[in-house]
Design goal:
By secondary structure, this protein is an alpha/beta fold. 33% of the residues lie in helices and 24% in strands.
């Protein structure tokens, strides 16, 4: 398989509940694939199975030509994963966690220090690097997770809601980093509820609903140095219209006491 990421007939059940049903998708090297859908659609489960953290009930995931297996370390140095659903050790500091991640991936301590300095600067974490993670805000925790996913320069990035809690400057910097990584041949799969950002960033978007891939949309994202193709509102409205067409438009409920 030549894809950076290939998902074949992937299913996952929890008891009698089906989280994923015969999911198939492919993301080529140098591309950014977005997953959208309502809460509970299966986005986090999909990414966690891709990362080798959850065992699928059926089907398989292939990353860079190798089959993903839970507990196998063969792909660990090639994959970066970040999700707010998988917390860190609160009793460590941000710099301790980031250092441990770098060393675990076989990077020399000298190189880890340099990369950590760069990542802390990129994500505005220098001032809190020495603080314990339990003191971090949600946005700071997410930034630390992104730094851990980036520090070993993986060939494949799997990012679950990477924009949640980020300030506008951090979103801008993160989008620039992801575009550069894609331009250098890396594969990125991400989930997000921010459909305007997804449309600006992704080459393909898969719409997940009730554990099934309902549709795949080909996009023409903005790339480094290219002029913006349209306003964020216009971009958001196109994907929103498609999402409501597939999952049903939310009912607007009136609160008479407001």
């Amino acid at each position: 398989m030549n894809e950076g990421v290939a998902v074949v007939d992937l299913s996952k059940t929890y008891g009698k509940t089906s989280a994923l049903s015969r999911l198939n998708l492919a993301a080529a090297p140098g591309s950014i694939y977005g997953l959208i859908g309502p809460n509970g659609a299966g986005k986090t489960t999909t990414l966690a199975i891709m990362a080798g953290l959850i065992q699928p009930t059926a089907g398989a995931v292939w990353i860079l030509g190798r089959r993903v297996a839970v507990g196998s370390g063969r792909l660990a140095n090639q994959v970066g994963f970040c999700s707010p659903q998988f917390p860190y050790f609160d009793y460590l500091t941000g710099s301790e966690i980031l250092t441990a991640c770098g060393l675990m991936h076989g990077i020399s301590s000298r190189e880890v220090k340099g990369r950590m300095r760069d990542l802390l600067g990129l994500l505005d974490l220098e001032s809190c690097a020495g603080q314990f993670v339990h003191q971090y805000s949600q946005g700071m925790r997410l930034k630390l997770g992104l730094a851990c996913a980036f520090i070993h320069a993986p060939g494949v990035l799997l990012l679950d809601e990477p924009f949640i809690g980020l300030d506008p400057a951090s979103v801008y910097r993160l989008m620039g980093v992801l575009r550069r990584m894609a331009s250098r041949g890396r594969t990125i799969v991400l989930s997000s509820h921010d459909m305007a950002l997804v449309e600006r960033l992704c080459d393909k978007v898969g719409v997940l609903h009730k554990g099934t891939l309902q549709r795949v949309i080909e996009l023409a994202p903005e790339r480094e140095g290219a002029p913006a193709s349209g306003s964020g509102a216009d971009a958001s409205s196109r994907l929103e219209s498609l999402l409501w067409e597939i999952v049903g438009k939310p009912e607007v409920k009136e609160l008479t006491w407001i």
